[in-house]
Amino acid sequence: MTTPLIRIANLNKSFGPLHVLRDVSLDVTAREAVVIIGPSGSGKSTLLRCINLLEPIDSGSIQFETSKISADSRGAHLLRRQLGMVFQNFELFLHLTASENIMLAPMKVLGMDRDAARTVAEDLLAKVHIPDKADFYAHELSGGQQQRVAIARALAMRPKVMLYDEPTSALDPEMIKEVLDVIRELSQEGMTSLVVTHEMGFARNVADRIIFMDEGRIIENAPPETFFNGGSDLQPRTVRFLDQILHH
Amino acid sequence: MDSPELILQYVFSQPFAEAAGMTLLITILSVLLGIVLGLIIAMMQESRVAALRGLVVVYLWLFRGTPVLFQIIFVFNVLPTFGILFSGFTSAIIALSLNEGAYMSEIMRSGLQAVGRGQRTAGRALGMREWQVMRYIVLPQALRIVIPPIGNQFIGMLKLSALVSVIAVEELLLVANQTASANFRYLEALAAAGIYYLLFTTVFMLAQARIERWAGAQKRSRTTPKVSFTQRLLGVGLKQASMR
Ligand SMILES: Nc1ncnc2c1ncn2[C@@H]1O[C@H](COP(=O)(O)OP(=O)(O)OP(=O)(O)O)[C@@H](O)[C@H]1O
Ligand SMILES: [Mg+2]
């Protein structure tokens, strides 16, 4: 077996008195799609933010490829170049057009020249199925289009992993599919993906593995077949959560 | 000589033209330095280091808590007793920019705060350094927000600059006063100075309107409200300039 791309061991994280992540351990292999589900406040976002050092961790370790991600943040920007992140609220840079959003980091961080960056942006906009929106600003795009630009922006840094934090939670129902389709296509092309979502259909069809988190712990870590069929193999808490969201 | 004729003669005379240039120079230099200072202070206010934030509080307290005129005279007359000697012009610039910085910091802070946390996080997540996030993401967006109030600060500073006549800087008011005291034609000398002030104020307002339109067009915002000349003059519909 190959070494995992990301290896998280006994990760703990508190915000003041609030213990948000408790002894979280998780391995993610290259090309894998891992879906993280769990009730609000269970620590899903915090886990993703710890992985790319947007939050400092208290104890435990996170390893990316062969190197340990240190708890001090001096090298954080170097690590983040290899991890793409997509946010619930898109967070497109409001003063830039779609293509400028995509070009900014390759130009300023990787030193790519403008023409090359422009080509990258055009290719990526085509990849997320909005080739004609290059010169539009965020407020001129629908939520689904904004989120696809945000995905393209992250991809422009050629990351080895994509972290998605509830990428469709802020979207109207009719736009959810277009975003999930892009995430699925990327995953099928071999992009290692960690996706926090409440979309169970997506989890069932796309995930190689599903993680269920509750109160800062990983309660369940199983392939989708086990997850959606195997009543007796699951923790009672997982069954209760699935009951709640599937029969609602 | 007729009044109108004398006024015109003053306006086009070398002393008045030079004094007007001095007024303009003091205004622009002080506001520009005030912007730099205000930005530094606004960033210090966001700092995690308590000592830096403490320093800012003391600075704001000193410069907002005393009259500008006091600050000008202090720099010019009191600092020399500690061996720090400046010319009238340098003293004027130092006092006015330090004062301006104390007010500009508030404008800068509101600009920085108007850029959401999520925008910075998104920049960091792309692997940008903190200064790159500031330079390429936060400042360009903050700039749009601070343009209208900065325009007002220019107009305010133009008027404040008259205060430095008390430390013998050869700006408009001083020259007008000196000219008048020689022949007691106060009306004409002050009218000539007034013409310059109004000219500069008008130019500032027109420039402000142009820059706002440019910033609005760049953002392609359809929501930027139109501000008429009268509104601009009266300061209605714009964020009020801080009162001193
Ligand atoms: N910066 C912070 N400071 C203090 N508390 C925080 C901070 N970020 C998150 N928390 C708290 O940590 C807990 C876990 O938050 P987190 O955002 O990771 O949950 P989540 O599983 O992503 O929930 P949701 O489904 O609502 O997004 C919550 O109780 C939250 O209030
Ligand atoms: Mg969350």
Structure overview:
The complex is a heterodimer of chains A (248) and B (244). With 248 residues, chain A is an alpha/beta fold. Chain A has helices at residues 44-51, 76-80, 98-108, 114-127, 143-155, 173-188, 200-206, 224-229, 236-246; strands at residues 6-15, 18-28, 33-37, 59-64, 67-69, 83-86, 161-165, 192-196, 209-214, 217-222. The longest helix of chain A is centred in the C-terminal third of the chain and has 16 residues, at 173-188. Chain B has 244 residues and is mainly alpha-helical. In chain B, helix 2 (14-45) runs antiparallel to helix 7 (130-160) and helix 5 (88-114) crosses helix 7 (130-160). The longest helix of chain B has 33 residues, at 186-218. Mean pLDDT of chain B is 89; it is low at 220-224 and 237-243. The chains are: A alpha/beta (248), B mainly alpha (244). Magnesium ion (MG) binds next to helix 1 of chain A.
Please, what is the oligomeric state?
heterodimer
The largest interface is: A-B, 29 and 22 residues
Span between termini of chain B? 40 Å
Can you give the helix content of chain B as a percent range? over 70%
Beta strand count of chain B: 0
Compressed to H and E, one letter per element, the order of chain A equals: EEEHEEHEHHHEHEHEEHH
Percentage of helical residues of chain A?
25-40%
Small ligands present: adenosine-5'-triphosphate, magnesium ion
Cα distance spanning the termini of chain A? 40 Å
Number of helices of chain A: 9
Shape of chain B: flat
**Strand residue percentage of chain A:** 15-25%
Uncertain spans of chain A: none
